[in-house]
Amino acid sequence: MSEVEVRKIKKIVRKAERLFPLTAEERGEESLPVGKPPKAAPPSTGKRGKTLAYAIVKPREVEGFATLSQLAAERGMQPQLARIWVKKAGMERSAAGWRWKVGSRDLKKVRKLLGLPEIPK
Predict the structure, then answer these.
(1) What pLDDT does 95 receive?
(2) What is the largest CA-CA distance in the chain?
(3) How far apart are the C-alpha atoms of 71 and 62, rounded to whole Å?
(4) Per-domain residue ranges of the chain
(5) What does the alpha-carbon distance between residue 61 and residue 59 come to, in Å, rounded to a whole number?
(6) pTM for the whole thing?
(7) Terminal alpha carbon distance of the chain
């Protein structure tokens, strides 16, 4: 065989290997043992060392007010996501923060926005 033919054959073999990859057993390599999967890496941390996986925690209750954290917990979502929804709806944060007096119009709007049922008077 000439060198040109050998190069053509090698090129065809490389292309076939890309299109139809061999399994580890076919290549003669050891496969991972069946049983426990390899350990997953711990969640990455942000600049301040906090983990990026947030847990939904029960917010503290303020008498006579409903906070956005409480509404988010009632909905089963993260408070950060609830704030994003409220901001995108065009509502502004009040001077008191993300809390509204029980029975106010704004609270009714936020509850409706989050898909929560209205609280009867």
Answers:
(1) 78
(2) 93
(3) 13
(4) 65-114
(5) 6
(6) 0.50
(7) 93
Q: Does residue 56 carry a pLDDT above 60?
A: no
Q: 10 Å Cβ neighbour count for 91?
A: 17
Give tens-digit pLDDT for 20-51.
Answer: 777 666 666 665 555 555 566 666 555 555 55
Q: Is-contact 78 56, C-beta < 8 A? A: yes
Structure tokens at 10: 């090698």
Under DSSP, is residue 62 helix (H, G, I), strand (E, B) or coil? coil
Can you read off the two tokens belonging to residue 92? 């502004």
Tokens encoding 91: 């509502």
* Angstrom distance (rounded) from CA 88 to CA 110: 12
Residue 4 CA, chain-centre distance (Å), reads 53
- Measured CA to CA, the distance from residue 119 to residue 53 in angstroms comes to 32
Cα(101)–Cα(107) distance, rounded to whole angstroms?
7
